[in-house]
Amino acid sequence: CSGIRCLPSRLVRPLEHRADGSLVHKVIVESAPRRSGKSVRLRGLALWRMEHSSLFGEVQTVMHTGSDVAICREIQRAAWRWAEDVADWTVSRANGKEAIESTTGDRWLVRAQSAVYGYDVCLGLVDEGWDVTPGTVTEGLEPATLERSSPQLHLTSTAHRRATSLMRNRISAALAADDGETLLLVWAAPAGSDIADPEVWRAASPHWTEDRRKMIAAKYAAAMAGTIDAEADEPDPVAGFCAQYLNQWRLSGRVVVRGNELVSAEAWHARALLPDDQAKPAGAAIESWFGRGTSLALAYREGERTVVSVSDHDDLAAAAAAVKATGYRGRVTVGKSLMSDPALSSLNRQASTQMMTAAVADFARLLTEDALHHDGGEHLSAQVLEVRTQPGADGARMVSKGRADAIKAAVWAASAARVDRSRLTQIVLPSGVGS
To answer: What does the alpha-carbon distance between residue 425 and residue 421 come to, in Å, rounded to a whole number?
Structure first.
């Protein structure tokens, strides 16, 4: 490699490949304490991908976003001189238009979270993901990687107590089940560790030096003295220290909402179960949420268990196409308001009039009966862990305001899959009977 003389060891696993040269991992979720070499890794990956576009057989577009465009710009800035003087590439330094472009048209673009749409993305970089909205990835970057050659999405962040659900859910899902495409790299102190122990500091760090020990010791002393770390943007000194230097995530959620949870995060993640690769859906359902997205739930039978997989789509047409791609031929349950939509006209569908409260109650019942498992997907997990209910005169009622269309679709699909059609008896009547 003429541009990068040697790859740091932390780049090796993300670049693992098969015999045909295709990359093994489509998603890399990395989390480490502050000052762990994250910027060097992101910069190296972006330049390597651009310089070796011939390995992928197509022009490479690297899309780089994060919590702060200025930080992303700083990571790219360190490559500007090399790009111009050594590689003879073109560099754009204009605010909001930062880019490096190779002589063959490969580009590394730095963009704000709201400006990642409309590109074909080969490598998506998400920096300081704790403050990145989930939609930036699920609606912006991920769809843009479709049909690319060995596309990858890299999410990286240090823990933060006020983190959005993006990194928390990605880490939780990867811990719950191996989807065969996600590589999880986390350096963190286990819950319950002695935060005063230098050996815990060392175990939570991907590399260790005496200078690093001194820095963490100073940060710990300041936290115990009640001094707020301005860099950590954290009003609780001890919580800031645990997040920034021990990388301890609060995976169960960042906001306490009034009401009762459907299921604890631990219990939910324990129900993760991947369906067989060759399994065909035994139930399907589609529901939307007031123009904010459309959920497609597919249910699979795994012995006596039912496993649901729920994906988020931009519109009904995309959800319908996804159903067809699975080869599912049964009836698709859809919300009553969607029944007449032309986008679903090609599906064999039936309407459900079930209200949200009833769907949530059915979901809880299926969990209690151990009749429902999930594939660890982020979309359903986020809704299940955020929904809250309170007792009412007519049963439990929802008090949370977030989306719950994935929950409704999951209930409908699971209910359809639980119908064991092999046990249904077919009765053939003589000709003329019943006429």
So the answer is: 9
Q: Quick check: 418 pLDDT over 90?
A: no
pLDDT given for residue 253 in this prediction: 46
Rg (CA), the chain: 24
Percent of the chain with pLDDT over 90: 53
pLDDT digits (tens, 9 = 90+) for 37-54: 888 889 999 999 999 999
CB neighbour burial string for 60-82, b if at least 16 within 10 angstroms, e if fewer: bbbbbbbbebeebbebbeebeeb
Are the CB atoms for 248 and 189 separated by under 8 Å? yes
Residue type, 415: S
**pLDDT > 70 fraction of the chain, expressed in percent and rounded:** 89
- Please determine, for residue 195, whether its predicted confidence score (pLDDT) is greater than 50: yes
Helix, coil or strand: residue 158: coil
Residue 379: per-residue pLDDT = 92
